C-alpha cells in the first residue's frame, strides 16, 4: 500500500492504515465472500435454522445463534432509497470527492448501506438503479520461506447503471 506524499513510506505496507480486510483463508473465515466477489457474485450467509440473512456474512446467526449457515447469492443490481455525498473531510484512501454512500433496496426485502463509486456530485437520485462493481485493492505482502509474495485482494461498491 503506497502512501502518497510520504516518500519514506513508498513501497512499504502500512498495516495500521490498511482499510481493507485480509481475505485469504489463512486470515479470514469469511474468505468465500471474497472468492465469490472475484467471480462477480455478491453473497452472504443464510441460517438454515431460522432463515436470517445477515450482511456482512457471519459464521454465527445473529438471530438464533446457530452455526448452521450456508452461502447464498444476493442480487447485483439495486435501487437507491436515499444517499449522502461527502465533499470535504474524505478519509485517506477513498480518492477524490465526492464520497457517496447510499441505502439500497436490492429486491424488495433486503436493504443495506453501501459505497457508490463512479458518480459525480448531484448525479445520484432516489429511485436510480445501481449495480455491483468489484475492484482490486492493494495486495498484502506475505512471507513464504525466504520470499515475499503479494496476495491479491478485491473489494466491492456499487455504481450507477448507465
UniProtKB/TrEMBL annotation:
Protein name per Swiss-Prot or TrEMBL: ChsH2 rubredoxin-like zinc ribbon domain-containing protein
Q: Where is the ChsH2 rubredoxin-like zinc ribbon domain?
A: 37-70
Q: What SUPFAM superfamilies would the database entry show? A: Nucleic acid-binding proteins
Which Pfam family, any one of them, does this sequence belong to? Answer: zf-ChsH2
Amino acid at each position: 500500500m503506497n502512501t502518497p506524499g510520504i516518500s519514506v513510506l513508498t513501497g512499504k505496507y502500512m498495516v495500521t492504515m490498511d482499510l481493507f480486510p485480509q481475505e485469504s483463508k489463512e486470515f479470514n473465515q469469511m474468505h468465500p465472500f471474497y472468492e465469490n466477489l472475484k467471480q462477480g457474485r455478491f453473497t452472504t450467509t443464510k441460517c438454515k435454522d431460522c432463515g436470517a440473512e445477515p450482511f456482512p456474512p457471519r459464521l454465527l446467526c445473529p438471530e438464533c445463534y446457530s452455526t448452521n449457515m450456508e452461502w447464498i447469492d444476493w442480487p447485483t443490481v439495486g435501487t437507491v432509497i436515499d444517499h449522502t455525498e461527502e465533499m470535504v473531510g474524505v478519509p485517506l484512501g477513498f480518492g477524490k470527492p465526492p464520497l457517496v454512500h447510499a441505502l439500497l433496496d436490492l429486491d424488495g426485502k433486503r436493504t443495506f448501506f453501501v459505497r457508490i463509486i463512479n458518480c459525480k456530485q448531484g448525479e445520484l437520485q432516489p429511485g436510480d438503479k445501481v449495480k455491483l462493481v468489484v475492484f482490486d485493492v492493494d495486495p498484502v505482502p506475505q512471507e513464504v520461506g525466504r520470499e515475499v509474495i503479494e496476495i491479491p485482494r478485491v473489494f466491492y461498491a456499487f455504481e450507477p447503471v448507465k
